[in-house]
Amino acid sequence: MLLKEHREELQAFMNSFVKRTIPVMAHNADGLASDYVLDAHLDAVMHIASAALDRFCYERNSLVPINRLPVEVILHVASFLPYAALSAATHVCKQWKRILNDARCLWDDITLSTAALGPATVTAVEAAFKQCGGNPSVLCLQWSYCTMDCPRLGDIVSTTLHSLAHLCLSVTTASCPAFIGILTSPAPVLRTLTLISPSGGPVIQLPCDLFNGIAPKLSAVYLSNIVLPAQAGSALHGVTEFAYFDLTLMTVLDIEHALAACPKLEYLTLGAREYEIPSSPRMFEPPQLRGLGVVGIVDRGIVERIVRRNTSNFALHLLWPTPMSRALAFCRSSTIKRVYVFLTPAADNQGYSGSLILTGDDDNTVALEYDWAYSILDLIGDGMSQLETVETLTISDSILAMLLASGRMGRLRSLHTLTILVTNDALAPYPRMFCFDGETRFPEWETLHTVRLASSEQYVNGFQPEHDAVLLSTRIVRSWLPTSTKTLLLCGVRLDDATITDPVIEYEWDRAEPGERHLLAGWHVGFPTIEALRV
Asked: Where in the numbering of this chain does the F-box domain appear (predicted)?
């Protein structure tokens, strides 16, 4: 902070400077300077002050220890930065700027966002391509309005499709010249394509003959509020994963176009607010798939026929399933062997959603997700008769506490292994186990010999010892344990009394079996959330 006398001195200098430098012709008859000229002078002063601050920061940062890091360390740290942060890192000091700018491989993942495709955007894109040697591997462009510079941008981006492996475009109109120019140019090495249109806006239809029919390595296509044309061309013939997201209304034609354009399709996701799918569609041959994700509906028309066509080695992911969807889910396998029930933080960090995953003896997997965890309790209650054969249960401690209180757990008579997921986070308003002595006892299971207490974070991130361990009371854990327990496994969990020997305790870290890992429901594919460099 400047002292008062220094602020007054600077203010007096600025007044004198402005009066001295504004030309006489910029004053009116009363001797007052034009607002426009005054603003221009002050803008120039701000620019000079900002440049002086940048020079000062460069000089200061050149003397701090971080500037003395080896080049290899600086490059390694920079490799983890998103595009916007990487651009900001070049302003740390001259040495960082030189090191980072010389490493072209760092700049091949480009993410730019702008309101309108004006000259500044075109210049920024050209500079970004130049910085990576004209060979970007990832390009994510977001813009809201078209201008007369759109054709030029389309031409510039099209020249880089020879090296692009991942392309993401966010647009508002299908008639944008840049959008059309990019999507009709050959893309010989493109592997994933993500196209996004604003939610609730007009649905955009892609141009015919995508990529001029040349995209031999394209394997995944994700469309948000965008649909395929009737004739998409041969560019999608190698696609194995296709997703529709956020459509206002999905029709039979939308699904048929996707299936016709992607003859090698293995995974299909359908997400819409409403579906216009008749109960008895016209001639339709359901494809053989490995996975299907659906928002809400699978209870009529061709979607149900796809589900019934794939009877084994099939993953069905349902978000907000309907009553008919739930009935299909529990009937997918003749015998359900493994069940996963867990809470996941909501996208807005407001509360938790609930997920239920069922795996059977025919390699079928069904995942159901709700944005309200209590819905999982009703779902388990509806399918309890099909769950009596379950041998392995992995469950959040909050859901388990509610199931024990409801008395439904006693029907799981075939249970051999129970994994309870615990966390250090407060899960209000949901109850927690192991926070107080067990008032509601476990049922008397003769077959349940193995209980695992596992950190939820460990299950999400793969059993890494550096994650924070969950500390539980030995006395409280002992009061909760089923009497049939012979082995207690701890994964990312510690007890406050390490001398306990009954039941036998084993610590798990890196040797967990793949099948025991927490399975993410993941009905959808997350769109790029990389921090964009605003243009």
From this structure: 63-110
End-of-domain residue from the set 91, 107, 123: 107
Residue 347: how many other CB atoms lie within 10 Å: 9
445-487 pLDDT, tens digit each: 788 888 888 888 766 655 555 556 788 888 888 888 888 888 8
Residue 485: count of CB within 10 angstroms of its CB: 18
Predicted TM-score (pTM) of this structure: 0.73
Please report whether residue 347 resides in a domain. Answer: yes
Give the end of a domain, one of 73, 88, 107: 107
Residue range(s) defining the domain that contains residue 88: 41-107
> What digits encode the pLDDT tens for the residues 409-429?
878 888 899 988 888 776 656
Question: How many domains is the chain built from?
Answer: 2
Residue 178 neighbours by CB distance under 10 Å: 26
CB atoms within 10 A of CB 49: 10
At 212-225, the pLDDT tens digits run 999 999 999 999 99
Q: Using CA atoms, how far apart are residues 350 and 86, in angstroms rounded to an integer? A: 31
Alpha carbons 342 and 367: distance in angstroms, whole number? 11
Buried b (16+ CB within 10 A) or exposed e, 64-87: eeeeeeeeeebbeebeebbbbebe
Surface-to-core class of residue 354, CB atoms within 10 Å of its CB (0-12 exposed, 13-18 middle, 19+ buried) = buried
Q: Would you say residue 532 lies in a domain?
A: no
**Chain-centre distance for alpha carbon 489:** 31
Convert the pLDDT of each residue in 259-299 to its tens digit.
999 999 999 998 888 887 766 556 778 889 988 888 876 65
In a domain? residue 287: no
